[in-house]
Amino acid sequence: MGLHWLMLLLLVAVFAAMELSDGFPKGSDTRASLKTLHFTLGLTVFTLVWVRLIAKLVSPAPLIHLPIARWQEVTAKVVQALLYLLMIAMPLLGWAGLADTKRSRQVDSVLRLAAACFVHREQGSRGNDQRNL
Ligand code: HEM
Q1: Do 34 and 17 meet the contact criterion of CB atoms below 8 Å apart?
Q2: Is the CB of 98 under 6 A from ligand 1?
Q3: How far is the CA of 12 from the centre of ligand 1 (A)?
Q4: Is 94 in the pocket of ligand 1 (CB under 6 A)?
Q5: Please, are residues 55 and 3 in contact by the beta-carbon 8 Å criterion?
Q6: 62 in helix, strand or coil?
Q7: pTM of the entire predicted model
Q8: Model pLDDT for residues 83-131, shown as the tens digit of each residue
Q9: Which residue out of 38, 45, 47 has the highest number of ligand 1 atoms within 8 Å of its CB and is therefore the one to mutate?
Q10: Start-to-end CA span in the chain (Å)
Q11: CA distance 32 to 25
């Protein structure tokens, strides 16, 4: 449930950051920061959508016991599928749009830094394991 509202907040923030950035002059720090915020939050959505999908597989949503019309059931399923598609396709399209620009190299650096921190932590915990043996 917490993840549900977190995703909503993130999506609103992703849209807001990009829309607000248009209000600042090209080349300004604020505009660049808001765009970077858009990319970062967008990538967070892309990561969390897989967590959501796995959570959905592990514990499916409870059944609705109220009688609802067939068209409502179908509409709900289609809208939900489209939302998932949006949360996967938008970051990929955004990423592709950035391909090989200076900004994409900045985003790559952030990802590389995150990966390096993760590997460092893993190696650290393996080191601790070895010391404990
Ligand atoms: C759920 C995730 C995302 C959503 C819903 C989303 C949505 C949007 C929207 C609404 C725009 C504005 C389009 C316009 O007004 O013309 C936009 C632009 C853009 N987005 Fe995203 N985006 C997402 C994730 C990402 C990610 C992860 C990246 C890159 C790492 C990215 C890169 C871009 C770029 C490069 C633009 C054009 C910026 C410009 O006009 O200067 N987006 N996106």
Answers
A1: yes
A2: yes
A3: 12
A4: yes
A5: yes
A6: coil
A7: 0.78
A8: 999 999 999 999 888 876 766 666 676 667 767 776 676 666 555 554 4
A9: 38
A10: 40
A11: 10
